[in-house]
Fold each of these.
Amino acid sequence: MKTLLELITIDMREAFAKAGYDEELAKVTLSNRPDLCEYQCNGAMAGAKKYKKAPFVIAEDVAENLKDSVYFESVDVVKPGFINLKLAPESVSSYLNEMAGEEKLGVEEEKDPRTVMIDYGGPNVAKPLHVGHLRSAIIGESVKRIIRFKGNRVIGDIHLGDWGYQMGLIITELKKRRPDLPYFDENFKGEYPEEAPFTISELEEIYPTASAYAKENEEYREEALHATYLLQNGCRGYRAIWNHIMNVSVADLKKNYERLNVEFDLWKGEADAQQYIPDMVQMLKDKGFARYDEGALVVDVQEETDNKEVPPCMILKSDGAALYDTTDLATLVEREKDYQPDEVIYVVDKRQELHFTQVFRCAKKTGIVRPETELKFLGFGTMNGKDGKPFKTREGGVMRLENLIREIDEEMYKKIMDNRTVEEEEARQTAQTVGLAAIKYGDLSNQASKDYIFDVDRFTSFEGNTGPYILYTIVRIKSILNKYQQNGGSTEGLEIRPAENAYEKALMLQVLKFNDVFDAVYAETAPHKLCAYIYDLANEFNKFYHETKILSEEDEQKRTGYIALLVLAKRVLESCIDLLGFEAPERM
RNA sequence: GCGUCUGUAGCUCAGUGGAUAGAGCAAUGCCCUCCGGAGGCAUGUGCGACGGUUCGACUCCGUUCAGACGCUCCA
């Protein structure tokens, strides 16, 4: 169904046209003076110059032609030339009833669904997940759900960092520790063991150890580089180790991401793109896109309109090895072959922007992707501690994701036990649900592109603009509805009635905005606007709740009308948090 | 050095070229204590600075100050 803004705009355009003015002026927006009106149109002022008339006169002409519109209770023309609109309660309630009958609450699906891929700029295997991986997972998951909700086909690819020097380091360190393993025996012709020669904890210790040692020891570094080379060029034993590393790591990653309620459709990685590199390089050479510069193969991506220097895209190092430009390009080759995406969104640290500018330009210029393919960089900022510096543990190290989540869960558990007498097991369960909401809402309520301060105390608070507060509101509605049902009431087939007081109307107007808000969120890929919306919605509900006796309302029509409104408000809230990637418990 | 991003209340953050720039936290004072008080109401302080465009600028464009980040063979 059309959003209310679209419906009003149709009438407004008609009114402008009838009065003899350009329809393009008929832009309706939400009011920024809620005390005066609910929606407004400022087109009269914009048109004053063109028609050489006082804006006030234009506005009055237009308002005259709005009289037939069914939507308004009042149309006021004010001072310079504002057209202030108030909705009729009847049209609000009937719109809401229509919304309640729609599975997607009035959001219209895309007429031509697109295929969108999301690249999470994935974690490196063999390294523990740390807080730096949190944002891409949380933001990416929400963006995926939002685009999918609009009816598109979305494919999320974690895009693991699973190829390169880090693997060489692990192999080298393993060889040093366990030279007796068959993987290091060149004459070994049998089957390698199925069991990995290390656990995930060992793996997580091996990598940093090796990495640190390589920085001090040149010989060791050379060996690791050579091991990388051997791995990439088909050494059977090393490939077997690589498989072990992948199996062990991926199992662990899946566990962690599951805990975050984050899912990937594809577990591809850099390694998967390797097979596409040789042909791609050949193509770049054959078609004359690539040139040699100081021994390295590069593609120029500088454009005339640039006011800065954009370095060329590096395809091969002077020693012939591939780089991350190469891998990202080859990945696009692979995606084009397998999925022909209409759009690829990279949810990665904003510091990588230059790199992706190079890759996007190169991919377009060389025809690796079609000209109409949208390549989008969705860069996010750093998660900082209270001191405004990148988030660290108390000891100053990198905070492991697992520990961060545990800390939040503990905090939530304490708060739940303080305020309620619940079974320990239920409290633990609830703490996890609410804790996840605290983390995700805390992240998503900020603009993705900005750095933000991760403040455990603030995010886990039940007051203010937080995840727990939103959940609390939902739980409160659930509680009322449950009580209503226990008393024999049914929530099926009820009609929302026209609002009779300001609180009721305010709540209705807020619910009403859902599809308009969603469309903006979708168009701008801006989950934080969804957060702002549900925070307002939760506030409007709480005000309404405070002013209105719901279950004890004696007039049955009114009572069932309230219930119908609560049912719809709850659905909207639940849909929104689902789009954000978390859910509400039954009690808390 | 060049470039990108950010700068809004004491703190954390919103703000689609429009009317009186908003929330939360913190502070102070009230209200309700009824379906879940994890509420409601009120009070105080602010668009880094200077210009320009515009009928109208936190928003667009310059200049400047401050901070973060990035600038070919790590990712």
Amino acid sequence: MRTAKRTAAREPAAQLPVARIAVDVPLAHLDRPFDYLLAEEQAAVAVPGCRVRVRFAGRLVSGYLLDRAQASEHGGRLAYVERIVSPEPVLAPEIATLARAAADRWAGTFADVVRLAVPPRHAAAEAVATPQARPTPAPPDLTSLDDYDGGAQFIRALVNGESPRAALTALPGDWPGTVAAAATTTLASGRGVVVVVPDHRDVARVASKLGENAIALTADLGPAERYRRFLAVRRGAARCVVGTRAAVWAPVADLGLIVVWDDGDDLHAEPRAPYCHARDVAVLRAHHARAGLLLAGFARSVEGESLVQRGWLRSLEPATAARARALPAVRASGDDEDLARDPVARAARLPSLAWQAARDALAAGAPVLVQVPRRGYVVSLACAGCRAPARCNRCAGPLTRANAGATPACRWCGHNAADWACPYCAATATRAAVVGAARTAEELGRAFPGVTVRTSGGDTVLPDVPAKPALVVATPGAEPSVPGGYGAALLLDGWVLLARADLRAAEEALRRWLGAAALVRPGPEGGRVVVVAPGELRAVQALVRWRPEWLAARELDERSALRLPPAVRMAALTGTPGAIADLLATAQLPEVTETLGPVPSGGEQERMLVRVPRRDGNALAAALKAALAVRSARKADEAVKVELDPVVVI
DNA sequence: TCAATCCGTATC
DNA sequence: ATACGGATTGAC
């Protein structure tokens, strides 16, 4: 009775009374717009993109108004929009279209994607007026892309208002300046820019180059500040956004360029459903918006190389002269024969090449970067001869030493392994399999008496260090910058990175090495890099020759041969065996679909991989989405996690 | 014959 | 999810 009376009291708006609403419900089978009526008094504020509350299946839910129409296709009665939460059109039409495309591409729901794209509302921030947009900046007074073959053309295209697309492998030096040059050029052409970088330190670096022109969007801002800056962008007051992965959705109008720095970094992969990757969203958005795209980094991801080989991106590589000017001298030092004769350097696991490079750099008054694979102290032991993990011969648990000099013992069963011998090479000596930054710092301190040793990694990341003699021990990604560059970099225990049982091990190892090596001063100024890993390995060769494109191309060839992504489109299905079987039985997968697995995935869970040729990728996503919808309508109790193009495949 | 409960279906 | 309708069951 009451509802009937209330409904009767409302009058539909005279103009465009039908509102198409995307409701925020998590169910795959409800992932489509629903029509509602707008009351006359709501008509003025009900703008496309605004937040609403509607009654849906009896309860109040949030939603976004997508657009308005004069009439509805829906046969039944329409309910009224309960409330216009705010007239702020937070969901820009362009972003709504992009979110729909992304949801389809990753077999997810519109609601899930929009949750990534639009930050939660903060009413107080909304109430504050946004300052007016700044005038278009003067053309850039920054380093340009002249050091790269085709770089000048790329910049010229941006100046001319065109939308060039490229993958750039950056030289050591001022990468934030390079990114800022492309951004400022685009701004000067009267268009907007989005720059996406892995973490907030990188945001600060790029933002400082862009100064007043840019607005920084990171997840670590509080809700109020985050929403305030988002609104500044949406209201058109900021035309250039620099941020972490969610910034790829920033509603910059009239987008001219998207830059993604270091797209191989895992931080670009969204951990929330539907697990989209900022690089791939950038590709999608550049396509939709007809914007330019720059994938730049010291490394080249296999995905970036794939886009190059498909002709979608142009490859921008350093010109020969610029290489000679900017690259440090890189050498590999593979085996223990090469270990320094000095007993203290030996104890610190330093090959003579590395020791020499460090001594020379320190003598020249420069700091030395020492990259170690992982944080932590001694973890477990490996065979000193062949480096196979040392395992207990009773229970196969990992061997460890309680303290330096103690005999090895099993960490699982406690068995004393003093008589251990390697089952592969019969060696009886063990060595630390992974030596963390702290232990390395200790050992280096002894090898270089009187030299300051600093560590950066884990909880204590040093942003920068002074240009004075010091040993700077850092884990990958936590390398401090230094004015003028390091005199040398030692990349220790390279084999640990390469030994990861992961499809991306080689690519990832090179990416991390390049990240450290790029902080070293140029070869002509004495800059040297020594990587402690077997010189015959592809990733090591790619580093020594500084040819990341070459490794990416080789890795891509291999993935094509093995039919692995990005040569094919793949989905990982994780859940109980029954749930996965049900999903696969329900899904009308393309004829060509291959299934791999299952493999155990912890607990009761299994993981199954399905793959199709690239051209069938959309059909695969659509089929999986449809099957998820059927299962969600059926109230299937056990969920299956569906990830398209998972970052970690094996 | 009626109520309590179950199952399936739609959600505007 | 949640709400609703129709079928189904069980006790009088």
Amino acid sequence: MKIINQKGEILEIKKDSHEAFEVLNHSTSHLLAQAVSILYPDAKFGFGPAIEEGFYYDIDFKEPISDADLINIEKKMLEIAKTNEKIIREEVNKKQALKIFKDNPYKIELINEIEGMITIFRQGDFIDLCAGPHLLSTELIRHFKLLSIAGAYWRGDSKNKMLTRIYGTSYFNRQDLDDYLNILEERKRNDHRLLGKQLNLFMISEFGPGFPFWLNNGMIIKNSLVDFWHEQHRKYDYQFIETPIILSRELWETSGHWDHYRDNMYTLKIDGKDFAVKPMNCPGSILVYKNEMHSYRDLPIRMAELGKVHRHEASGALNGLFRVRTFTQDDAHIYCRRDQLLSEINTLLKFFDDMYKVFELPYHIELSTRPEKDYIGDIEIWNESEEILKQALISSGKEYKINPGDGAFYGPKLDFKLKDSMGRIWQCGTIQLDMNLPHRFEMSYIDENGEKVEPIMLHRACLGSLERFIGILIEHYGGAFPAWLAPIQVDILPVNNNYHLDYCKQLTKKLKNLGFRVNLDDSNEKLSYRLRNSQVKKIPLTIVIGDNEVKENQVTFRRYSFKESHTVSVDEFVQILTEDIKNKKHYKNK
RNA sequence: GCCGACUUAGCACAAUUGGCAGUGCAACUGAUUUGUAAUCAGUAGGUUGUAGGUUCAAGUCCUAUAGUCGGCACCA
């Protein structure tokens, strides 16, 4: 297919490339604007770019529009598209441009920032200020859908006026569009807020917006995750600590949080003194470090804490378990010597890999380096640290990319971006080198010469927030948890309550005594009904007991989402279950 | 916080221009005793988010407020 690029050249590109998708979507956003300009002559246009999964256009409407209006706009778009309007690129000077867009303050603002010639695109009577690239005509634009309306600040600045943003998506054929719409449906079905309700995992009360309540089923998942977390940390020689939720103002002033983040901290007065609920665990960890003198021989010290933190997030930011006002960080702080840094980073990369593998979450790493201006610390240490992070990445053989200048002001960092089963990316893990706090808190260890030396401090979280991570897992697994996490691992169904119930009761007792989470369904319903229930509740293993099983001391079981059943002895079943839990196996019938 | 929408039984949703608040699932009772995704019948369940207003009459219209959702801004 042919496109006009930003230089005005006509190029041939592959229709199945992401570039082609972007050009199509960008041109569809112009088509949207054209339709809107006909239906709403007063509307003024802002930006209308292509984005990862489609496009949007920011529009200043005189009167607010509603979802129902999208249907009309869509109709108009299709009508225009079918005329196969030519998309024409032109260059004009600033004066001409200002004349063309004289009624649009947004475009005028942009024009005044451009040096030299200005590119415009014309289709029919509609003209837009735009660099391109675009399709040559509206001919290829047929399979699109307007998805939603939202508010968005002009130029992404909350001091500016809020415009109306229309989101949409556009594909080259009907099938691809339908596939994408199906993925959107699947994401909706697997929404952790919905599944959390259906499976009784957690709740959020209007009496505590952003403060989730964990229900029994959710606690089983959380505790299983926490057990695994402890196991991993023991393996990697971590100490475990717990630091207070409330600490005094002076501490937060020393750490710098009081000045930087006070608006997002919950503060309180106790006996006339200011305190704050902790938004981070680091200062607490540092106090523990400073509780005693340290020799260079003691390092590295790896201190882990599942710290419950509170942050006053804006009301509009709250979102299920993904964005909450209190959450548990799987936090750890590593204090080490300069010469230990590389091996510590290497070990962390291994540690993170171990964790993510268990959940079948592929990931890539991003290295964020020193900011241009606002940074503290020695430039030599920055360079050395960045070099060490890079070396560790290279030796790990992991895929990574560099975000130049995107580091924290106090040090470079590695971010771990996980991809879930529905193709979405989540940042969970982070490793941050800190050249700020050790200094502010006057931390030290005694080196081999008896001198006081400042330790290197690493902050790291692997899962990020347990709440958020469980939210991600709920959606990633679609609520069908592997047995090691599942609230109920085994559902036992007697075929006939008169003849098989006693055997089932004994079996239930036996499995429970072995530590398995078992449910006995003795309701007077048809087997097919109970079986359906078991599947709807997404229980990993369902056992059916009838005459044959009782006679032979066997069980017949099937795994979640699989149709076929297996008949084995009770002991064999226990073995299978034990193995599946130990291996953290996830049943998924593709 | 900002823009827009939404809030009806435990859950998912109905209720025409303002005119008797309903359906399905779940729960409970009874019958049924079931071999791999929904057996039948019955019972109960509500200050329609909250507070106020308009009206003979409000789930429906108006005002305020809380919460939720889609985004934006924010995210140490």
